[in-house]
Amino acid sequence: MQIFDASSMIYAWDNYPLRQFPPLWNWMARQVEEGILVMPDVAYGEVNQSDPDCASWLRNHRLVRLEVTNEILQIALQIKNLLGIVGDRYHPNGVGENDILIIATAHVHQSELISDEGRQAVPPVNASRRKIPSVCSMPGVAVPCYNFVEYIKRSNEIFH
């Protein structure tokens, strides 16, 4: 199972339009319908807010939406503590609450996270400035994180 962040779904929707890349979207539809590609409920909410057509496409293909559980909340709190975030004082250049819930969801489900948030070659000294891929790579988190293009390449799928 691969867990998609809103950033990757919106990236794919914007950069690989359905009418120009039907084989890609047919494959993606199968991934969604078979429960291989899933999204945390908070990520789906972000997609719905940003691009209702994309959210509708996901809904029409019976996207599995993962709800926030107590276990996910506990892991999210641990991640928040690792980042040194106190209360609701998230750094504007770092992860936000939804991002932490998405990472925690991938952690709990022992799944890869697909996110197109910017990579940080050198993690910031201030951990609260880390973006999703950098947080995923932290020893206390350890969630494999790939972007959309890496997801496609790793699939070895050929699109005709």
Question: What is the CATH first-level class name?
Answer: Alpha Beta
Architecture, CATH level 2? 3-Layer(aba) Sandwich
Provide the β-strand percentage band.
Answer: 5-15%
Number of strands: 5
Number of helices: 8
Keywords:
Rossmann fold; 160 residues; 5 strands
Characterization of this structure:
There is one protein chain. This protein has 160 residues and is an alpha/beta fold. It is 49% helix and 9% strand. It is built from 8 helices and 5 strands, in the order E-H-H-E-H-H-E-H-H-E-H-E-H. The chain has helices spanning 6-15, 22-33, 41-50, 52-60, 70-82, 97-108, 132-136, 148-155; strands at residues 2-4, 37-40, 65-66, 112-114, 145-146. The chain has a 5-stranded parallel sheet. The longest helix has 13 residues, at 70-82.
In short:
This protein has a single domain, classed as Rossmann fold, CATH 3.40.50.
Blueprint (SSEs and pairs):
Elements: E1 2-4, H1 6-15, H2 22-33, E2 37-40, H3 41-50, H4 52-60, E3 65-66, H5 70-82, H6 97-108, E4 112-114, H7 132-136, E5 145-146, H8 148-155
Parallel strand pairs: 1-2, 1-4, 2-3, 4-5
Helix pairs in contact: 1-3, 3-4, 5-6
